[in-house]
Amino acid sequence: xxxxxxxxxxxxxxxxxxxxxxxxxxxxxxxxxxxxxxxxxxxxxxxxxxxxxxxxxxxxxxxxxxxxxxxxxxxxxxxxxxxxxxxxxxxxxxxxxxxxxxxxxxxxxxxxxxxxxxxxxxxxxxxxxxxxxxxxxxxxxxxxxxxxxxxxxxxxxxxxxxxxxxxxxxxxxxxxxxxxxxxxxxxxxxxxxxxxxxxxxxxxxxxxxxxxxxxxxxxxx
Amino acid sequence: xxxxxxxxxxxxxxxxxxxxxxxxxxxxxxxxxxxxxxxxxxxxxxxxxxxxxxxxxxxxxxxxxxxxxxxxxxxxxxxxxxxxxxxxxxxxxxxxxxxxxxxxxxxxxxxxxxxxxxxxxxxxxxxxxxxxxxxxxxxxxxxxxxxxxxxxxxxxxxxxxxxxxxxxxxxxxxxxxxxxxxxxxxxxxxxxxxxxxxxxxxxxxxxxxxxxxxxxxxxxxxxxxxxxxxxxxxxxxxxxxxxxxxxxxxxxxxxxxxx
Lengths: 221, 259
Ligand SMILES: Nc1ncnc2c1ncn2[C@@H]1O[C@H](COP(=O)(O)OP(=O)(O)O)[C@@H](O)[C@H]1O
Ligand SMILES: [Mg+2]
Hints:
heterodimer, A: mainly alpha, MetI-like fold, 9 helices, B: alpha/beta, binds magnesium ion
């Protein structure tokens, strides 16, 4: 059987819709996940033992279990626990946000730690109030240092988001699977779907190393 | 003995400082410094010179003792409740420059200089910038106002660090081996800036291993070893013909390396 990639053209619209869902989901979860991850990162470096313990358990749990199971959990168990119906999109957003929060919190934690204690010494010697030490010196440096890894985290999220197809969300992966089932041409269809993921992810991964070099050059003292 | 008319600028009494129970670093220092004095602290590596300056800057807690600054209580600890009281208002009148620059890498030179004046004293940005540019010009850095620290040489960074501390009009400057991390050809430009400050009667406490610099900047020299002051006197005495055996050994060693 010869490969025939032209069949894809017939499903252009469906694929675009799926891609749109994937991008939308990724974007929402990038924003929510990074925000949440930042707060969790702060909690993990906080002085309060309780905050550190709770946030550590959360992070280790979500980093140490398969995302697919997390998804099933949120989709099927969370509505039972909460006693409310959750839309597919809402469940997908919650699940991927929690996943993104866990991995980005590690990124933020590492970058917060990478701001050396001598920077704090300098702040104190200049008489900067605690508030300004954090907002004008520590956080800007930590966020700058975090950017390259955060971009990698975003690429991971973009790819991992394909898992929501397993719980029936009509994302790019879901559409691709549907088409491949209906046309019985999994090789062509899934190759094209992979290519679409790649075309979006690849420039981002390249950008990561470029940006990383520039940031490191700037922050090297 | 007659009492001095003005109170000493600094009066350290019985300073004790340890890092954990095993590492006793300062073992009861008593140092007095008069206004206008430039105190050079020399001594073997690990002898507690940096710790002394860091305590003076309010960066380290102490176990016991007290420091008065300009006649006002500044730092004290009675050793009972493990609390070190630091008057942060007094601390603002002290500036410090470190061995490793510690500029803020994400801010350009002018931003480094004006951050504290704008945040601490609520100075207007335009006023602070004007003062900053003035200082930079004085230190031969006029062209570097918009540069980032990573684009500067070590000597330039250290001059920026000095300018940054001066932006707050300190009444005392602390310099901890500020030329030790520099390439030899960059040492002079930094020392010149400090000598310039000395000419303007800025009181300072300087830790250095550079004997030429020590001789030229000091109005008084202290030799610290083992957490105590071993010898204290005018530079001609401590650097030239020390009374104490341990000072002599140290000076001999350092001079041999230098010459
Ligand atoms: N943060 C610290 N924790 C533990 N020990 C320290 C710390 N800082 C300095 N020390 C120790 O205290 C002693 C004095 O150090 P320091 O003040 O840096 O000496 P100097 O500047 O004269 O070389 C050294 O033995 C050093 O290892
Ligand atoms: Mg030292």
